[in-house]
Amino acid sequence: MAGRPVDHEHRAALLDAAVDHAVEHVFSELSWRSVAAALGVSTTTLVHHFGTKEQMLEAILGRLRERLVAASRELAGEGADLATTARAFWAWSSDDHRRPTFRLFFAVYGRAVQSPETYTGFLEQLGADWIAILREAQGPDVDAAVATRRATVVVATLRGLLLDLLATGDRARVDAAAEEFLAGL
Q1: How far apart are CA 144 and CA 132, in angstroms?
Q2: What global pTM score does this model have?
Q3: With 0-12 CB in 10 A as exposed, 13-18 as middle and 19+ as buried, what is 134?
Q4: What DSSP string describes 92-117?
Q5: Cα separations (Å) of 88 from 18, 92, 102, 145, 173?
Q6: Considering the domain boundaries, does residue 1 fall inside one?
Q7: Cβ atoms within 10 A of the Cβ of 156, count?
Q8: InterPro entries recorded for this chain (predicted)?
Q9: CB-CB contact of 112 with 122 (8 Å)
């Protein structure tokens, strides 16, 4: 006897709410009970829609990635160059309103580095997405290998600056360093 089918609209709404909850809480402390309580559903509902806790966490990370990539693509804009796109990325990601999102991002990133076999998709996709956007911002006339190297430097530098900002809260120093880097692009 088959179970009831998953309502994909309801699952998507639950997933969005679970991501919002994860952004506001410590990722390592997410449990069936904490997520169910925050969403106002039973743990059985979460099991029905996501399967295992690991599958739920994977879905949360996937949706977080989708949100970050969608925002990044929107920021890149039509015809924006590398410097303009990188500056837009920095302004958006370093905004104080996004601090919880990037705290979650770096919490997962740290876990992924420690357990790459568990977070393979997260590690491969997020960096690749941002590099692709920045590579495209350099235009079709730039050699692909050169564009990839430049995009990698931008992603790694902005990621490092963002981590520094989150860790220290020293906005003036980190913004000055970001401006120094961005001006060189």
Answers
A1: 10
A2: 0.82
A3: buried
A4: HHTSGGGHHHHHHHHHHHHHHHH-TT
A5: 27, 6, 16, 23, 19
A6: no
A7: 12
A8: Homeodomain-like_sf (IPR009057), HTH-type_TetR-like_transc_reg (IPR050109), HTH_TetR (IPR001647)
A9: yes
Among 2, 137, 111, 1, residue whose Cα is nearest residue 58:
111
CA distance 74 to 58: 24
Residue 108 in any domain: the answer is yes
For residues 31 and 45, give the distance between their C-alpha atoms in angstroms, rounded to a whole number: 14
Q: What is the pLDDT of residues 12-45, one digit of tens each?
A: 999 999 999 988 887 778 888 999 999 999 999 9
Local structure of residue 77 (DSSP, 8 states): -
Domain-located, residue 3: no
Residue range 171-184, pLDDT digits in tens: 999 999 999 999 99
Q: Which domain holds residue 118?
A: 8-183
Q: Any alpha helices (H) in the chain, and if so which ranges? A: 8-24, 32-39, 43-50, 53-76, 82-93, 99-114, 120-136, 144-168, 171-183
